[in-house]
Design brief:
Distance between the termini: 106 Å
Helix content: 10-25%
Radius of gyration: 28 Å
Structural class: alpha+beta
Strand order of the largest sheet: 6-1-2-7-8
Oligomer: single chain
Length: 375
C-alpha cells in the first residue's frame, strides 16, 4: 500500500497595508511643521555667520587704518587729489577708502589709481573706481545692481556727530575729515615739482592718536551703510523711494535751524525725520561711491540713531548731496535691530537701534569730554 504523503501549504502572505489618505496627510503636516521650525533656525544661523563676517571686515578696515597710521604717524583723512597739473585736479577729491587699499590686499588697485592720477583725464580713475572691493561689502547686503560712477561699499568712516555732509577739520569732530588747504585746496595750484597731491605733505592730514581725547576705545572709527538701488535723481509723486536703501534730496531745510549741530536734540531730530519723510526727490547712489569723499559715499555720522526710522538725506540739491550742505546720514545695516562699528582702537562692537541718542552722538565725538562706552 502506497503511503499517502501530505504536503502542508504555506499560509498565504498577508497583503501589505499602505498609508491611508488621513495618515499621509498627517505625515505631510508633521513634516511641514518641522520644516517651518527648522527654516528660521537655519536662517538665523546664516545671519549670525554673516554678522560675524561683517564684524571681521570692519576689524580688517580698522587694522588697515592703523597700518596706515603706523606708516605716516596719522590716520587717513577723507581727501586725496589727482596729480598736480592734470586738468581734473582742481575738483576731484578721493576718499580714505582709496588710501587704505594697500593694507587690504589691494596693492595692485592702489597702484593703478596712483598711475591714473597722472592721466590727462579722469576716465581711467573712474573705470578703476567701478571695481568691487570685497573688503568693503557686507555679507548681509546686496551690491548696487546698476552701473555707477564708483563701486559699491557698505563700510564708511565716521565724521562724528556734526550734521555737515563734507566737514572740514574743525567741524568734523569724529574720526576723520574732508579738508584740504593751501595750494592743495580745490582749485589751487597743488604741490611743487609735480609732486602728486595724493597724500602730499602739504595736504591736511588725518587725525593723530593724541587728538582722540576721549580715548581710542570710546570713539567710533567706522560703521555700516546700505547700498542704494543705483538710480540717479528720481522725483515726483510715486517716486521709488526704496526706503531705507535710497536717500532723499531737497527736504525742507530744518537743518539750518539746529542750535548745536554737534548735538541735535531729540525734538530737532524728529523735525528732520518729518522733513525727510515728506521729500519727493530721491537718489539711489548712496553706498555706490567708495572712492568719493562725501557723506554716504565713504562716510556716515552719529548725529541721529543707527537705522533711523526715517530716510537719510537732507535739503541739499542732487549735485550737493555728496559734496556739501547739511543732512542726516546715520549708519544702516541689514542686521537685526543693530549696526556694527569699529572703534578707533580697532575693537568691533554692535550698536542697538535703541541706543540713547546723546550716547550715540558722544560715541562719534572724539573730544567732548564725556567718555561713554559700549561695554
Amino acid at each position: 500500500m502506497t503511503p499517502t504523503i501530505s504536503f502542508r501549504g504555506r499560509p498565504a502572505a498577508t497583503a501589505a497595508r499602505g498609508f491611508t489618505l488621513v495618515e499621509l496627510l498627517v505625515v505631510i503636516a508633521i513634516i511641514g511643521i518641522l520644516v517651518g521650525l527648522l527654516l528660521p533656525a537655519v536662517q538665523s544661523a546664516r545671519e549670525t555667520a554673516r554678522n560675524v563676517g561683517c564684524q571681521n571686515k570692519l576689524k580688517q578696515l580698522g587694522l588697515a587704518a592703523h597700518n596706515y597710521m603706523t606708516a605716516r604717524t596719522y590716520f587717513p583723512s577723507n581727501a586725496y587729489h589727482p596729480n598736480v597739473g592734470t586738468a581734473w585736479a582742481t575738483w576731484e577729491v578721493f576718499s580714505g577708502l582709496y588710501a587704505v587699499l594697500p593694507f587690504l590686499e589691494e596693492q595692485r588697485l592702489y597702484d593703478q589709481f596712483r598711475a591714473a592720477f597722472g592721466s590727462s583725464s579722469s576716465g581711467t580713475a573712474y573705470s578703476l573706481g567701478r571695481s568691487t572691493v570685497q573688503a568693503y561689502i557686507c555679507p548681509s547686503d546686496l551690491p548696487m545692481q546698476t552701473a555707477t560712477k564708483w563701486g559699491p561699499a557698505n563700510y564708511a568712516w565716521s565724521f562724528g556727530s556734526n550734521l555737515a555732509s563734507i566737514p572740514n577739520r574743525a567741524t568734523a569732530n569724529g574720526f576723520t575729515h574732508t579738508e584740504v588747504s593751501g595750494t592743495n585746496n580745490i582749485g589751487g595750484s597743488g604741490g611743487t615739482g609735480g609732486t602728486p597731491r595724493v597724500e602730499a605733505k602739504d595736504s591736511v592730514p588725518g587725525r593723530e592718536t593724541s587728538e582722540f581725547r576721549d580715548g581710542l576705545s570710546n570713539v567710533i572709527m567706522a560703521s555700516e551703510m546700505l547700498c542704494g538701488t543705483g538710480d540717479g535723481k528720481v522725483s515726483g509723486a510715486g517716486a521709488p523711494a526704496v526706503f531705507p536703501r535710497n536717500m532723499v534730496l531737497g527736504a525742507s531745510d530744518v537743518y539750518g535751524g539746529v542750535a548745536n549741530k554737534d548735538f541735535p536734540t531729540e525734538t530737532e531730530i524728529a523735525a528732520m525725520g518729518t522733513a525727510n519723510g515728506a521729500a519727493t526727490e530721491w537718489s539711489g547712489q548712496n553706498g555706490g561711491s567708495w572712492g568719493w569723499r562725501g557723506i554716504y559715499s565713504s562716510a556716515i555720522h552719529t548725529a541721529v540713531p543707527p537705522n533711523w526710522p526715517f530716510p537719510s538725506g537732507g535739503p541739499s540739491s542732487p549735485g550737493q548731496m555728496y559734496d556739501g550742505g547739511w543732512g542726516a546720514f546715520p549708519p544702516r545695516s541689514r542686521h537685526a535691530n543693530s549696526v556694527n562699528v569699529v572703534m578707533v582702537d580697532g575693537s568691533t562692537k554692535s550698536v542697538s537701534n535703541t541706543i540713547d541718542v546723546l550716547t550715540f552722538q558722544r560715541l562719534g565725538h572724539r573730544r567732548d569730554g564725556a567718555k561713554v562706552s559700549l561695554e
